[in-house]
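Quick one before lunch.
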Amino acid sequence: MSNAVPTKSYARQYRPIWGEIRLAVERAFFEDDPVLGGALERFERALAAYHGVRTAVGVGSGTDAIALTLRELGVHEGCEVVTCAHTFSGVISAIHLAGARPVLVDADPETALLPPAAVEAAITPCTRAILAVHLYGHPADLTALGDLARRRGVHLIEDAAQAHGACWQGRPVGSAGAAAATSFHPSKNLGAFGDGGAVLTSDESLAARLRVARNLGKNGKYEIVRISPNTKLDTLQAAILEVKLRHLDAWVARRRELARVYLDGLRGVGDLVLPVERPEARHAYHLFVVRTGRRDALREHLAHCGVNTGLHYPIAAHRQPGLAELFRGVSFPVAERLAETVLTLPLSHELETGEIARVIDRVRAFFGD
Ligand SMILES: *Cc1c(COP(=O)(O)O)cnc(C)c1O
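Model of the pyridoxal-5'-phosphate complex:
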């Protein structure tokens, strides 16, 4: 057996649930309903129930979920959407695709999340929405951001793509604002075997508009009521996701157990800054991200030892070559420093405790601990 530690393994993920997946896929095939089929409706119902919202609308990707939500909430040309400079930069593209202008604020130095006070300072008469990304699986401060959004009359939209299974004050994320966008990219805590996404909302009228918007703007079979992309969640992916959703809580519990092993094993080692979990939060540990001034050397050392690591994210949003024209002359020191210091250690529910222990040993050895 190889000694390498992967960041994740899809084969290991699917093997124990293969019987359930096969049955679900078989059922979907013989329902004879491949587009917007029964499997999609079942998954949407289960997903909404899990998150405590009225409806879920399955779409083609997390990026489309954000763009369509903004558009259907009336956030368009000339409107501003405030989000964090330390982020998955696809979020910025989604805001731009909706036609709105992304406005960045610097990250909170401790949590690396969107700081409510900075958001408040960035609000202008053009602001229509706050996009709160629950980065790494730790919820943004939904209490403060929810209050702020209500007070200032803007929409709070959650990006829960990395936060399947995360809670804020005991409730699953996804129900704090007007809507939440999520992704089922295979790498997420709840991942399809291909692309997928969804919008969660309790606003039935928004959900109805989204169902039209994801389907070429069609009302019924023939009538096009507006220009819109074709971006539906695939029925087979929904069949797979419905099975995986049943395991999500156990998988997130396992992620938390492995995160605890890291936290115990790495506390006080070198200059490492470890992830924090605020008392109101249940961290879903989509990514276990540490920080160190010696990031590149540690990453190289771990690669030599067969430990695969990731970078989330090495380029701040305003420094992305393809986005730079949107953010001329701005600087966000916390986000820029995060981009240089973050390192993602392997963490996924299918990893073994012994593998995490091996990573810890190699990290300690690097710091001469
Ligand atoms: C993955 C991800 C997305 C985009 O999802 P896709 O399905 O890949 O389009 C959006 N936001 C965050 C925070 C993500 O991690």
